[in-house]
């Protein structure tokens, strides 16, 4: 596995090695031994499906004490994935990075606790799978408005498909003071 650091401390791009032949292919999507930079124990796996191109999910996070680190990959279709630094004491607070994840490029992104996560589907019929190091908690579930101008993500579409929950999420300034 190739592990690449990003400008956001702790956010990593992971590229598994793919072994293929006439029968197909094999890859390890996670190995604790091969990714010692990921210092957490995963406890839950999630699987998400987006039917239409232009679907935005996010910017999601979990509040204390149920924060989550995530290891995300796209197993069908193509997404642009975003990690947003929501740590007020961080020198990169409010900054974000994006990476294209697809079933073809096999890239993954590791997003540690303290970050928001969102993605937009760039094709129809998208599936993502991700591991978390803490369990989902409805009481700690939170989101920042996907179009928050203080964060300034250019999602590449003027008319995205968003859930009611994501459309009514608060601005960052109303959550973190």
In words, what does this structure look like?
With 177 residues, this protein is mainly β. The protein has one helix spanning 164-167; strands at 2-5, 12-15, 18-21, 24-27, 44-50, 56-62, 70-76, 78-85, 96-102, 108-111, 115-121, 126-132, 141-143.
What is the element layout, followed by pairings?
Layout: E1 2-5, E2 12-15, E3 18-21, E4 24-27, E5 44-50, E6 56-62, E7 70-76, E8 78-85, E9 96-102, E10 108-111, E11 115-121, E12 126-132, E13 141-143, H1 164-167
Antiparallel strand pairs: 1-2, 2-10, 3-4, 5-12, 6-11, 6-13, 7-10, 7-12, 8-9, 8-11
Number of beta strands: 13
Largest sheet: 6 strands, antiparallel
User: Would you tell me the structural class of the helices and strands?
Assistant: mainly beta
- Unreliably modeled segments: none
Average pLDDT: 97
Counting DSSP H or I runs of 4 or more residues, the number of helices is 1
Shape designation = globular
Whole-angstrom Rg: 16 Å
H-E order: EEEEEEEEEEEEEH
Distance between the termini: 39 Å
Strand content: 35-45%
How are the strands of the largest sheet arranged?
1-2-10-7-12-5
- Residue share in helix: under 10%
């Amino acid at each position: 596995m190739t592990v690449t650091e990003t400008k956001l401390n702790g956010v990593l791009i992971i590229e598994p090695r793919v072994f293929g032949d006439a029968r197909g292919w094999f890859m390890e999507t996670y190995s604790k031994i091969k990714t010692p930079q990921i210092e957490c124990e995963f406890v839950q796996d999630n699987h998400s499906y987006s039917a239409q191109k232009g679907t935005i999910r996010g910017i999601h996070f979990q509040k204390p004490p149920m924060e989550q680190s995530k290891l995300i990959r796209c197993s069908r279709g193509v997404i642009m994935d975003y990690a947003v630094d929501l740590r007020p004491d961080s020198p990169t607070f409010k900054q974000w990075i994006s990476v294209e994840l697809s079933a073809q490029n096999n890239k993954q992104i590791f997003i540690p606790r303290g970050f928001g996560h969102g993605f937009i589907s760039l094709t129809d019929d998208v599936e993502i799978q991700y591991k978390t190091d803490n369990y989902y908690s409805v009481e700690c579930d939170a989101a920042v408005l996907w179009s928050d101008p203080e964060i300034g993500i250019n999602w590449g579409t003027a008319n995205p498909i968003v859930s009611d929950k994501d459309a009514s999420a608060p601005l960052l300034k109303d959550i973190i003071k």
